[in-house]
Design a protein that fits this description.
This protein is an alpha+beta fold. About 20% of the residues lie in helices and about 45% in strands.
Length: about 100
């Protein structure tokens, strides 16, 4: 998956599906699973709505930066950071399941 760097207009974020355009102009749809705070920064956990390969399945971690009323998402390239954020997401999801 290539790096995303896109400001997302609010109207493109409907029903939990977000359309992102990569640097090659390719549009992909993602489901927003969660927003996680980790070490003072915010990250979004996303899943491809229409994975094309087995490699495309699973979660993607994006850093979230505010730009006025918009947000800028960048795919986290640091595997160690992405794993730590995703592990926190899994832990929080498990805790939420335990509470139900």
């Amino acid at each position: 998956m290539s790096e995303k760097d896109e400001q997302i207009p609010e109207e493109e974020y409907e029903d939990g599906v977000l359309e992102l355009v990569d640097e090659d102009g390719k549009t992909e749809k993602f489901y927003h699973l969660a927003t996680i705070e980790y070490k003072g920064s915010h990250y979004g956990i996303f899943e491809l709505a229409e994975p094309q390969t087995e490699e495309d399945e699973g979660g993607f971690v994006f850093s979230i930066e505010e730009d006025g009323d918009d947000f800028i998402l960048n795919e986290v390239e640091d595997d160690e950071l992405a794993d730590a954020v995703f592990d926190l997401y899994l832990q929080q999801a498990e805790e939420a399941d335990d509470e139900e």
